[in-house]
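Write out structure tokens for LacI family transcriptional regulator.
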Amino acid sequence: MMSTINDVSRLAGVSKATVSRVLSGSRGVKEASRQAVLQAAEALNYRPNMIAQSLLSQSTGCIGVICAQDNINQTTSYLYALEKQLSQHQKHLLLRFANTSNGVMNSLEELTCGLCDNVLIIGARFPLNINRPDVVLVDCLDSEGDNSIQFDHAFAAETACHYLISQGRRQIALIHPQSSGFADQVLLGYKHALEKNFLPFNRNLVFLDNTSPSVAVQELVNNATTLNFNALLVSDEQQAAARGAAATGV
């Protein structure tokens, strides 16, 4: 049988009100009482009713996350770390996927109608006109302001190139379609790495137009004898780099 707040109250020797204050994180509870409640809750494997807690605290305890990219693997690669951090703060993650502006807005409307306290929108590569205190845009294209967090794509590209060069890979091909976003920053980081290692810039090794990544890889493979590349820098693992690498022995 599932334990109730009454069971915790009896075992801890305190009132139900004290149990509620301890479990909701409220202040003004003696340390001895707080420890007694926590030990009783653990002994009874007590799980508070989330709906009742939400009504009491006026907080859902949930953070909404909208993954807004066609390439789901790219966005979800760090969801595990995010969920772990939220769990440490007794928060829950509610996930939605959307790859259009309308899809994001529909998901946002759903999540902010009582399901979540705040929402993160991750990786949108299309314009979003959102300026709300309960929404944070993470790595979204053309988003600036207090509610926006951007990655340093130039630094990331430069760091990746430095690593490849340190491994003896000095002929680095870059594939980063404009539709992937932040192409100018990625190219800047790529060039900085070449300059710092006294390597020439070869325009024939750079693919920034909206050609399919697989087409770009095939072009590299077809011209491998003249281009003589020995490494690929791509924005994610789904850009057919593996086939190109296997075909050229990279």
